[in-house]
Amino acid sequence: MATIAVLGGGNGGFAAAAHLSALGEQVHLYSRSPATLRIARERGGIAYSGVAGEGLAAVACLTNDLAEALAGAELVMLCVPATAFADLARALAPLLAQPSGPPVLLNPGNTGGSLAFRRLLIEAGCASPPPIAETNTLTYICRKQGEGEVYISSLVQHVRLAVLPASAAERLWPLLSRFYPSLRPVEHVLVTALSNVNAVLHPPGMVLSAAWIEHSGGDFRYYYDAGTPAVAQVMADLDRERLAVAAAWGLSLEPFPQLFADLGSTSPEAGASGSFLRMLRESAPNQFIKAPANLDSRYLHEDIPFGLVPMSELGRALGVATPVMDALITLASCISRRDYRAEGWTLARLGLPPEREAALAVLR
Questions:
Q1: So which residues are the catalytic ones?
Q2: Residue 101: pLDDT band by 50, 70, 90 thresholds?
Q3: Which stretches make up the Glycerol-3-phosphate dehydrogenase NAD-dependent N-terminal domain (predicted)?
Q4: pLDDT over 80 (residue 253)
Q5: Cα radius of gyration rounded to whole Å, the chain
Q6: What does the pLDDT look like over 9-39, one tens digit per residue?
Q7: Which H or E run includes 135?
Q8: What is the 3-state secondary structure (H, E, C) of 284-311?
Q9: Residue range 327-354, pLDDT digits in tens
């Protein structure tokens, strides 16, 4: 039995806490909001259903105290939006500054999350951060059903995992693969960064369906109903730019439909076809998920500044043009009346020099 501190009271945090508790691990679930944990406390656990089974997962510790959550933890798993990284890094810095501080897993890491989080920890006074692992997507497709329940529609397969520094991967692998046996280790965190699922999956639909979301309050199936030929075309062009950026950094990554199928998020046939439209239409775990109720959504506030902006910056550093990516950043900023380019992760905020070999050396 391992002791895992799961930080985050949203969809992913509840899914991870329930799933890992059901597997017999000792989970300390942290949320900064007492209301988020109230029903779970009253019930004595988190009710869960879906592909992971059905029942009441008895979570060992439900707490609003970060120090209590980390007490005895062998792993600190962040299941929070990237918008929460800065605040959590400041709060975690003194707790992780010990020489034997537990490693961190960003589940997911977005585009460069481990790099950004390490820099934030250092700025907050943690001079020697522990190893930070990251996934390219959340290990669950899930939604909370009220405050005390979670429905898990997929235990995502073959999720890519990298560690910063890469030299620490061997130390973390036995623990992480025990919880998620299908994890696929990759060379370094630039691979997971440029395999960020949500950065390709969410922005095209959000920008092109903005009027529909505002008019209907999001009362439609986001991935299925908004997965039209136009959205699929923008997604395909966006993915070509992602692959071009990856190639400039010396990486050969699979096209998005193939990646999506390998994760178990669409049919193998759709993945092999290369069709983004078919990929969306045949995504069984996602087909009933509703659109956000409004445009004040992590699909914009997270997936643009911490998804597309760093991808664009990685391209710009090596002279790779990303016009579709940049157009989505500009339009999303206009829709939200925010400057996502200014808010987002630049290479400087990731702690990466703009020269390829120097940047790659940071990852190792």
A1: 202, 303
A2: confident
A3: 4-98
A4: yes
A5: 19
A6: 999 999 999 999 999 999 999 999 999 999 9
A7: strand 132-135
A8: HHHCCCECCCCCCCHHHHCCHHHHHHHH
A9: 999 999 999 999 999 999 999 999 999 8
Sign of CA dihedral 215, 217, 220, 224: positive
Domains of the chain: 3-192 (3.40.50.720), 197-363 (1.10.1040.10)
The first and second tokens of residue 250, run together, are: 């010396």
Residues 6 or more apart in contact with residue 117 via CB below 8 angstroms: 78, 85, 89, 104, 106, 129, 132
pLDDT-derived band at 209, boundaries 50, 70, 90: very high
Long-range contacts of 35-42 (CB under 8 A, 24+ apart): 35/147, 36/9, 36/147, 37/9, 37/62, 37/63, 37/64, 38/147, 39/146, 39/147, 39/148, 40/147, 40/148, 42/148
Of 187, 138, 180, nearest in space to 165 by CA: 187
Per-residue pLDDT, 100: 78
Given a contact cutoff of 8 angstroms between Cβ atoms, the answer to whether 346 and 314 are in contact is: no
Mean pLDDT, rounded, for 131-139: 98
Please list the residues that pair with 105 across neighbouring strands. Answer: 77, 133
Residue 247, CB-side half-sphere exposure with 13 Å CA sphere: 11
Interstrand relation of 3-7 and 26-30 (parallel, antiparallel or unpaired): parallel
Q: Does position 99 have pLDDT exceeding 80, yes or no? A: no
